[in-house]
Design a protein that fits this description.
Layout: H1 10-18, E1 26-30, H2 31-34, E2 43-44, E3 54-55, E4 59-62, E5 71-77, E6 91-95, E7 107-110, E8 114-117, E9 120-123, E10 135-136, E11 147-149, H3 157-165, E12 170-174, E13 178-184, E14 188-189, E15 200-201, H4 204-212, E16 218-225, H5 229-238, E17 244-248, H6 259-266, E18 269-273, E19 277-278, E20 284-289, E21 294-300, H7 304-322, E22 332-337, E23 348-355, E24 359-362, H8 371-375, E25 379-383, E26 395-400
Parallel strand pairs: 5-6, 13-16, 13-17, 14-15, 17-21, 19-23, 22-24
Antiparallel strand pairs: 1-12, 2-11, 3-10, 4-6, 4-7, 5-9, 8-9, 18-20, 20-21, 22-26, 23-24, 23-25, 25-26
Helix pairs in contact: 1-7, 4-7, 5-6
The structure holds ligand LQZAQKY5 and molybdate ion.
């Protein structure tokens, strides 16, 4: 193998890939449509919340200067229906959670702590301490002009609610990337119920597209495609409008591993090939310049666990970066081994395992073709190159597979 293609470390390969990203154009979409996408610029509040002092509980609003009572009930402030008058000495206003505190009122006494008798209330329980305990101050959450979210934040359920509360009907986000997923290999059967002995059902394409669809992308599948240059270049042509093309299989060194030569024939330029990780070593990254934008092609190894691990560490971060994420890489967790693991070889390894919230149990079978073990896993245990054997109970780091490793 030429020095040029010596496997490179994971972080270096990720940095090279992300350096190729040209963020996609910005569009404004309504808040619901923005869910799953990333803010392209900081968001300022267009209103103050709460816009006035509000009661946080159901009870009675009184002045702070008269906390002994009894009080005469002079009216009501309900959510959406404020009390127009002022509360004075010896007076109380019935108030509900979320209602505006009437003028003059500085304390809310819970209704459970009061007895009401014919328009008068008297204390039977505790006074609020401090008196303003049950009051949400104007601007407690945010004030007009505050930056409520930074650029690159993912719009999830709470962020969408915050944007609406801050007075925004639309949000600036980047257009959704278009991704094509190409299954390649002569042995692949499109129909799992009609799979001959010399075949294997094509399963990576569905797995990968499902993984990518966890992000706000338009993913489509092509193939299975035969192991010929013509079939592969025709598949690339069918993906000519895509921002990202992901292939699985045919990335290694065999006579029928044609993804690299097909990409070159198609006019793509290889950026790097081979990463020092296990599984996933034969990963390749190439680019093709179109009239307006750059296409990025990622060739994943065909073994199912290799495809999953490389999609997790490369394709998901790439898609997040195209969407404008501030932190596109997955986050690590620290946990403890539930069983011993052997010493590692020269490639950083991602063992498949199941984390139950306390310890992580590596699957017995770690072959990169073992789909049952992959499907039983929710964590990739991160083992450094040449890591010594480790006992049950020792701390290890890992990546949660769920949600692409991003909380
Ligand atoms: N002499 C060497 N041989 C291999 C090397 C090497 O360095 N020298 N690397 C090995 C590594 S590591 C991996 S990983 C594999 C990956 O090879 P390819 O990307 O070329 O994958 P294929 O050979 O096409 O397929 C591998 C395996 O996966 C199955 N497969 C492929 N596509 C799908 C699909 N869409 N759905 C389900 N299963 C799929 C395929 O049938 C094979 O069993 O190369 C090693 N070899
Ligand atoms: O990517 Mo391969 O799985 O290292 O055998």
């Amino acid at each position: 193998m030429s020095k040029k293609n010596a496997p490179i470390p994971l972080e270096e390969a990720q940095a090279r890939l992300l350096a190729l990203v040209e963020p996609l154009p910005v569009e404004r979409v309504d808040v619901e449509g923005a869910i799953g996408r990333y803010l392209s610029e900081p968001l300022q509040a267009r209103r103050t919340q709460p816009a006035a002092d509000l009661s946080a509980m159901d009870g009675y609003a009184v002045t702070a200067s008269d906390l002994a009572g009894p009080w005469r009930v002079i009216g009501e402030s309900a959510a959406g229906h404020p009390y127009a008058g002022t509360v004075g000495h010896g007076e109380a206003v019935r108030i509900s959670t979320g209602a505006i505190l009437p003028a003059g009122a500085e304390a809310v006494i819970l209704q459970e702590d009061l007895a009401r008798d014919d328009g008068r209330i008297s204390l039977t329980g505790e006074l609020p301490s401090p008196p303003h305990k049950h009051i949400r101050r104007c601007g407690m959450d945010f004030c007009f002009g505050n930056e409520v979210m930074a650029a690159g934040v993912k719009i999830g359920p709470a962020q969408a609610a915050l944007a609406l509360a801050a007075g925004h009907r639309h949000l600036p986000v980047r257009r959704m990337p278009k991704v094509a997923v190409i299954d390649s290999g002569d042995e692949l059967a499109a129909d799992p119920e009609a799979c001959e002995a010399h075949q294997i059902p094509a399963s990576n394409g569905t797995m990968l597209a499902a993984l990518f669809r966890g992000l706000a992308v338009e993913a489509r599948r092509i193939g299975p495609v035969a192991d010929t240059l013509d079939a592969l270049t025709a598949a690339f042509d069918a993906a000519a409008d895509c921002d990202v093309i992901v292939t699985s299989g045919g990335a290694s060194v065999g006579d029928h591993d044609l993804v690299r030569p097909a990409l070159e024939q198609w006019g793509a330029r290889l950026d790097f090939w081979r990463v020092a990780i296990k599984p996933g070593k034969p990963l390749l990254v190439a680019t093709r310049e179109r009239d307006s934008a750059r296409q990025i092609i990622i060739g994943l190894p065909g073994n199912p666990a290799s495809s999953m691990v490389t999609a997790y560490h490369f394709v998901l971060p790439l898609l997040r970066a195209l969407l404008g994420a501030d932190k596109p890489l997955p986050m690590q967790i620290a946990t403890r081994l539930g069983a011993p693991v052997r010493a590692n070889g020269s490639r950083r390894e991602f063992l498949r395992g199941f984390w139950d919230g306390e310890t992580v149990m590596p699957t017995t079978l770690q072959d990169s073709g073992a789909l049952a073990a992959l499907a039983a896993s929710n964590v990739l245990i991160d083992r450094a190159a040449h890591a010594p054997e480790a006992d049950a109970g020792e701390e290890v780091r890992g990546f949660l597979l769920q949600n692409g490793g991003i909380a």
